[in-house]
C-alpha cells in the first residue's frame, strides 16, 4: 500500500482472483457454492444408486451452488467461476487481459477444493459403494461423481462440437443480461437468471458428455481425483479425452462472443444524447413578448 492507503493495482488483481477462488470453495464462506453443491449431489445420487436423487437433482444442485457463489462474491470479482466466461469478458473489454490468468488459476484451485470437500462429506458412502476401490471405469466407478466423461457412443469430433455449442450458448445467453442498450435484467436477479440458463443447458446438453462448459469445473476436480486415489487413469481413459473439456469450451466462448458482437452488440442503438440545455438555446426557444 502507498501512503494514501490505496491498494496497488497488481495486488488488487490477486485479491480479486482470491475472491474467484473462494467463490468455488466451501462451507467456510457461509454457503457451499458450485462444486461442493454439485459434486455432493452427484455423490449422493451415485452412492445411493439413485434412491436419493436423480439426474435432475444433480443439475439443480450445481445451479444452486452457482447462484449462491454469484451472490456471495459477485460484487468483489464478478463471480465468473469459469475461465471461458473470463476470456469472453476480456474479448469484449469488460475484464483486463492481465487478470485472465490469475482468475483462471484461482477458479481451478477453487474447483479442486470444492471437490475435496464433497469427497470428505461422502467418503464413507463412496468407499462402501465401490468396496474401497477408487475406479474410473466399470459398473462401480466413482470418478464420474466429480468429472465429466464421454458416453460410449460418442466420437471425439462429436464431443468437441458438443462442448463448443454448449459454451457458445452459455455466452450468448449471459452476455446481454447487463447490456443497458438492450433489455438488461435487474442486477439483483442476475445470479438467478444465469443459474436458470446453466440449468437449461444441463437439462438439454448433458447426455453426450456431461455439459462441463467450463474448463475449471472439469479440470479442478480431475486434478483432485488424480491426487485422491483414482490415479492417472482420470487423464488417460477414453483415449486421453481430458483435453476436450479444456479446449472446446475455450473455443466455444470465443465463438459465442463473436456471434454476440457481430449480430447483437454492434447493432444496438447508441445511448440517447442528453438534452442540450445551453442558455442560448433556451433564449431562442422562449416565447418572449415585448413589454
Task: Summarize the structure in words.
There is one protein chain. The protein is mainly alpha-helical. Helix content is 60%, strand content 0%. It has helices spanning 9-23, 35-47, 55-77, 83-92, 100-121, 123-129, 156-174, 190-204, 215-230, 233-240, 244-263, 279-285. Helix 1 runs antiparallel to helix 3, helix 1 packs parallel to helix 5 and helix 2 runs parallel beside helix 6. The radius of gyration is 23 Å and the shape is globular.
Summarize the structure.
The chain is an all-alpha fold and 291 residues long. The protein has 12 helices and no strands.
Key structural traits:
mainly alpha, globular, 291 residues
Amino acid at each position: 500500500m502507498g501512503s494514501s492507503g490505496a491498494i496497488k493495482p497488481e495486488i488488487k488483481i490477486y485479491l480479486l482472483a482470491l475472491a474467484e477462488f473462494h467463490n468455488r470453495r466451501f462451507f467456510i464462506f457461509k454457503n457451499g457454492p458450485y462444486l461442493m453443491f454439485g459434486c455432493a449431489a452427484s455423490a449422493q445420487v451415485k452412492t445411493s444408486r439413485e434412491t436419493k436423487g436423480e439426474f435432475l437433482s444433480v443439475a439443480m444442485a450445481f445451479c444452486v451452488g452457482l447462484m449462491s457463489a454469484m451472490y456471495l462474491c459477485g460484487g468483489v470479482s464478478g463471480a465468473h467461476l469459469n475461465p471461458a466466461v473470463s476470456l469472453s469478458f476480456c474479448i469484449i473489454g469488460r475484464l483486463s487481459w492481465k487478470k485472465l490468468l490469475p482468475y483462471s488459476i484461482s477458479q481451478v484451485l477453487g474447483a479442486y477444493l470444492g471437490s475435496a470437500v464433497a469427497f470428505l462429506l461422502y467418503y464413507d458412502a463412496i468407499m462402501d459403494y465401490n468396496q474401497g476401490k477408487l475406479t474410473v471405469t466399470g459398473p462401480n466407478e466413482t470418478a464420474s461423481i466429480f468429472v465429466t466423461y464421454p458416453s460410449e457412443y460418442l466420437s471425439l469430433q462429436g464431443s468437441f462440437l458438443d462442448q463448443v455449442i454448449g459454451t457458445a450458448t452459455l455466452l450468448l445467453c449471459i452476455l446481454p443480461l447487463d447490456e443497458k442498450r438492450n433489455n438488461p435484467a435487474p442486477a439483483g436477479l442476475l445470479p438467478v437468471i444465469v443459474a436458470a440458463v446453466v440449468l437449461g443447458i444441463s437439462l438439454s446438453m448433458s447426455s453426450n458428455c456431461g455439459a462441463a462448459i467450463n474448463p475449471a469445473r472439469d479440470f479442478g476436480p480431475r486434478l483432485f481425483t488424480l491426487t485422491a486415489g483414482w490415479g492417472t487413469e482420470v487423464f488417460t481413459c477414453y483415449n486421453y479425452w481430458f483435453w476436450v473439456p479444456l479446449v472446446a469450451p475455450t473455443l466455444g466462448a470465443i465463438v459465442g462472443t463473436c456471434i454476440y458482437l457481430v449480430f447483437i452488440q454492434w447493432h444496438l442503438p447508441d445511448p440517447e444524447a442528453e438534452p442540450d440545455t445551453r442558455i442560448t438555446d433556451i433564449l431562442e426557444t422562449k416565447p418572449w413578448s415585448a413589454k
